[in-house]
Amino acid sequence: MWQGILGHDEVVERFRRTLASARLASTYLFVGPPGVGKRRFATELARSLLCTESEEAALKPCGRCESCRLFAAGNHPDLDIVELRPDKSELAISQFVGFDEHLNQEALCHRIALKPFFGGRRIAIVDDADHFNVHSANCLLKTLEEPPPQSLMILIGTSPARQLPTIRSRSQIVRFQPLPVESVAQILLDNGLVADRQQAERAAQLSEGSVERALQLSDATLWQFREQILTALQAPALDRVRLGRAIQAFVEEAGKEAAQRRDRLRTVIGFAADFYRSELRRRSGESVRANEWVERAEPIVRSLDACITALEYVDRNANQAMVIQAWCEELSPLGGTITAGQQREADGQ
């Protein structure tokens, strides 16, 4: 475990080898599932590289030098962090080049080109890199093409496919894997995020290696609604209108902020996607003729595809009511679905 971060020792060793051979790139793109520690890893990497007392390749900040003290205080002069602003769906141009009379005289692209305060390097971390638009990405393009001396840029996203080609082609890609179930449960317990080990293990089983998702699943209200969703999807006849209304009401209960509702809708769609994946895995083990299996799997695949499409529209900040209606209309009733007990068994409960 490096700097208190579980599950990414291979990435740590990759950077140690890179630093030992003096081959650190100017731009890295961290990709992997949300909630696996990519941002924390980027922050700890920056702290290690900015430390003025320890060897870079060791990646062990001393915690005592002035650089480490400023970093701990959250006001290090050689570090900039850009993230998605509250209730915004895209990274803004002004976050990279400023605006009005201060255009190109402030913001990330200006600051990263300044001489490092401590003489080592300047580091910029761009969280939520999935949310670049063409204009904000183009503002960063010149900096990526001609990186200032002694600069390091770390972009954090979920998949290379979600990055614009201009970003992807100029970055070294570092892939973060989902965390083991045991690690997710331990993180929940160590940080007091759940009441007990049973709750931690139940949430971790369905987390897909993401602490963020596990934390969402530890919410009793969310868990109860998940059971409601599974019951509806397992019914012999799928009442799409009723399902859509229930989802809409549950999403609105998340709060007035669009971001909160968007997160809840994303989680609910994820519940359905998990159900269809479980059903597909179950039916793949059945002893039937190939053409019969394809016929029986087709509505499951179609419904799973509808879930993926709906998630894409949620990420684009589309009208949530319209997304819910269109998504529910695309879901197919499944004959002979697994029972609630079988689903719980598949979830490891």
Write the layout of secondary structure elements.
Elements: H1 9-20, E1 27-31, H2 38-50, H3 66-73, E2 79-82, H4 94-97, H5 107-111, E3 122-126, H6 134-145, E4 151-156, H7 165-168, E5 172-175, H8 181-190, H9 197-205, H10 211-217, H11 220-234, H12 240-252, H13 258-284, H14 290-315, H15 320-330, H16 340-346
Parallel strand pairs: 1-4, 1-5, 2-3, 3-4
Helix pairs in contact: 8-9, 9-10, 11-13, 12-13, 12-15, 13-14, 14-15
Would you mind describing this structure in some detail?
The protein is built from 16 helices and five strands. It is of the alpha/beta class. Strands 2-3-4-1-5 form a five-stranded parallel sheet, with helices on one face. Helix 9 (197-205) crosses helix 10 and helix 13 runs antiparallel to helix 14 (290-315).
Query: What count of helical segments does DSSP give?
Result: 16
Instruction: List SSEs in N-to-C order.
Output: HEHHEHHEHEHEHHHHHHHHH
Tell me the number of strands. Answer: 5
Strand order of the biggest β-sheet: 2-3-4-1-5
Helix percent band: 40-55%
Sheet with most strands: 5 strands, parallel
Strand fraction? 5-15%
Q: What is the structural class?
A: alpha/beta
> pLDDT below 50 for ≥5 consecutive residues: which ranges?
336-343
Cα radius of gyration in angstroms? 23 Å
Overall geometry comes to: globular
Overall pLDDT confidence: 88
For the terminal residues, how far apart are their CA atoms? 28 Å
